[in-house]
Amino acid sequence: MFVRRAYIREPDRPAQRGQWPFAVPCVSQLADEGLRFTAPVTFLVGDNGSGKSTLVEAIAEGFKLDAYGGRLAAKRGRPNPQRTPLGDVLTLETTAAGSRMLGGPRSHKHGFFLRAETAFNLTENLGGVPGYWDADTASMSHGEGFLTIFSEMMSKPGFYVMDERDHADERGADNESVAAPRSPRGAKRRHTSLYLVTDNGDENAG
Ligand SMILES: Nc1ncnc2c1ncn2[C@@H]1O[C@H](COP(=O)(O)OP(=O)(O)O)[C@@H](O)[C@H]1O
Ligand SMILES: [Mg+2]
C-alpha cells in the first residue's frame, strides 16, 4: 500500500461547513475523522451526489495527480493542473513505499487518475506520446481506449484512482439505494456509481 490515511490538518479545517465541498456529509466526516485505508484496493460506493468524485479527485491530487486525470509525473504535464478546494487542504499519510515513490525518480512513479469524463480526451491525444501508449487510441472505440489505458498505464504496482462517469440523467431515479452492482443485463446500470481508489503496491517493494 502507498497511502494509509487521508485527513485534513487542524489548521486547514474549515470552521464553517456550510459551503461546498464541506457541506457534503462525507467530506464533513472526512474533515472530522479522516479516512483510513486498510486494504490495497478501496471502493467508494454511494448515491449520485454523495461526494465520491469530490473525494477521489482530492485523493488523486494528494498523490500529485492532476485532478483532470492523467498519469503521475507526466514529463510535460498540462500547464495548469486542475485543483479542487478539497484537494487544496487534504493531506495523505503515505506509507514508506508511498513516500519513496513520491520522492523517487520519475521512472519509478507509477500512478494514473482515470476519470471517465476526461479519459476520452486522453485516448484522443496521447497515443504514441512517449510515456503513454503506442497504440493509436484515437481511432479506437471508447471501450478499447479504456482497455489500452488499463493495460499500458496500470500494469505495475502503483497508485491508481478511477472515477466512473456521472449519471446525471438518472439522478433521483433511485435515491434510496446504496449502490450494489446490478445485473449488467439490465437495460441501464442505474447509478451503481462504483468508484475505485486503488492503492496497489507492496509496502516493502523497493
Ligand atoms: N464544483 C462544484 N461546485 C459546487 N458543488 C459541487 C461541485 N462539484 C460537485 N458539487 C456538488 O457536490 C456534491 C457531491 O458531488 P460529487 O462528488 O460529484 O458526487 P458523486 O460523485 O458521488 O456523484 C453534489 O451535491 C454536487 O452537486
Ligand atoms: Mg461522481
TrEMBL record:
<dbReference type="GO" id="GO:0006302">
    <property type="term" value="P:double-strand break repair"/>
</dbReference>
<protein>
    <submittedName>
        <fullName>Putative ATPase</fullName>
    </submittedName>
</protein>
<feature type="region of interest" description="Disordered">
    <location>
        <begin position="168"/>
        <end position="206"/>
    </location>
</feature>
<dbReference type="InterPro" id="IPR027417">
    <property type="entry name" value="P-loop_NTPase"/>
</dbReference>
<feature type="domain" description="Rad50/SbcC-type AAA">
    <location>
        <begin position="33"/>
        <end position="60"/>
    </location>
</feature>
<dbReference type="GO" id="GO:0016887">
    <property type="term" value="F:ATP hydrolysis activity"/>
</dbReference>
<dbReference type="InterPro" id="IPR038729">
    <property type="entry name" value="Rad50/SbcC_AAA"/>
</dbReference>
<dbReference type="Pfam" id="PF13476">
    <property type="entry name" value="AAA_23"/>
</dbReference>
